[in-house]
């Protein structure tokens, strides 16, 4: 590990605050290093060590088409976590560097021991969940309850990092948003069956295609619904990006809705529209 990466680890270890809200010391240091190359090298080393599943491409950048500034760039990491530039960027290269900076800080922060799911982490999480909800700790053994389903998901992902867990949680966020989880309940599928199935399967093109078809059917029943939902999703994506949050859930929503709208009428892609939100 070179000295620049070690220094970044030192800055991160100072506290556990949200990385997108970087201190001036962190921001200045990250700005003077080649963050695009460092991000690629970081994930290349993880793949070499066998720490991640093999991917066709390590880090994928996607620029939102725009006739002029401000420019927007998204970077997707192995596994699916997505980040974007949260600063106002006047060139595409600047947007790419800023997106890489956010992704690098989150990638490094994710390596800290405190970001790994352990039995102690699960206990604390359950206590916090029950304190803020109507459930009780005793429900953790029953997967049919909300607390039980949460406990099952944590148990299935013990040893994984928070970014890896977030990748799985995004799948269930999309299933809930799309109404798929409700459909499974109506078919009397248990939460345990659904969680076990999608924890292993993840979000594939078949699942996305089913979601697109679902929204096409809703549009036929309620014309104009897709445009309304897409505008709402684009606003959520823009807001999340500007605060440096992980973006996959918001970006997947916009892409699913945009594809459905394109199949229904033909229109702009979400990445074109988001530049104007």
UniProtKB/TrEMBL annotation:
Please give the superkingdom of this protein's source: Eukaryota
For this chain's UniProt record, which GO biological process terms are given? autophagosome maturation
Q: What cellular component terms from Gene Ontology apply here?
A: cytoplasm
Name the InterPro entries on file.
Autophagy-related_EPG5 (IPR051436), LIX1 (IPR029270)
PANTHER family noted in UniProt: ECTOPIC P GRANULES PROTEIN 5 HOMOLOG, PROTEIN LIMB EXPRESSION 1 HOMOLOG
Family named by the database record:
Belongs to the LIX1 family.
Which protein are we looking at? Limb and CNS expressed 1
The record's gene field reads LIX1
